[in-house]
Amino acid sequence: MADRGDVLSDVLADLAAEGAWLDAVLDGLDDGWQAPTPAPGWTIAHQVAHLAWTDRQALCAATDPQSFAGLIPLLLNGELTVDGIAADGAALPPRDLLAGWRAGRDELAAALRALPAGVKMPWFGPPMSAASMATARLMETWAHGHDITDTVGVPYPDTSGLRHIAYLAVRTRDFSFTVHGETPPPDPFEVRLTAPDGTVWSWGPAGAAQRVEGTARDLCLLATQRLHRSDTGLVATGPDADRWLDIAQAFAGPPGGGREPMAANGPA
């Protein structure tokens, strides 16, 4: 089994690669920063502002947990809102916004490497280890990156980094049920996903009565709510596994609205 250092290094390497790839897409934009994305009311600038802000909050959680704790009441009582914070950041000149996101990514990676083993930092959901935080940032960078590339029409490459996001989706199965006010199933599922290179990634007991099969890309898009279930090739066996695919959510917070089926956006 890989030790903490190996896991953290692997996730941080994939997070850096994800950020660098998306950064290059953004660096090539001219006047496209105000283009509306699939998230209602959010432009590309809003998406980048949100990534930059959440990276900064993760950095604060890693280096100054007491200051981070002071942020939670402001969000709970509505003094700060995710939409408002994104709008404030989106008002910056695009070059400044991009430079700020770059700097924040580098600072966060250094802080996570320096976090002592076994230490967990506070977050908007349960406390997180350095590796878990890096995985969460990878997931969110990838998800919001899809909002951006869907807008500008750039194909998003599938990489081995999807394994971390798929694992997060599997780990958050019970959370997905709980956040919808439902009791998590008592038994684990078998999840078998085809990786970008054609190999199979699997979690859970082989031959379990409840299972999910398909591509890693489809599960990651579904659990980040960037693709409607009807537009995936995922197959569920068993009623609990089937329900999970309706509500899968790998990110913290209340249930998201998700995407509409592609057929709903096409010709009648």
CATH architecture of the largest domain: Up-down Bundle
Give a quick account of the main beta sheet: strands, pairing sense, barrel closure: 4 strands, mixed
Based on secondary structure, the structural category is alpha+beta
Residue share in helices?
A: 40-55%
Strand content: 5-15%
As for the CATH topology of the largest domain, it is Four Helix Bundle (Hemerythrin (Met), subunit A)
Mean pLDDT: 94
The CATH homologous superfamily name of the largest domain equals: dinb family like domain
Count of separate structural domains = 2
The value of Rg in angstroms is 18 Å
Give the overall shape, derived from the CA principal axes: globular
Order of strands, widest sheet: 2-1-3-4
Distance between the termini: 52 Å
Q: How many H/I helices?
A: 10
The CATH class designation of the largest domain is Mainly Alpha
Number of strands: 4
Could you list the spans in which at least 5 consecutive residues all have pLDDT below 50? none
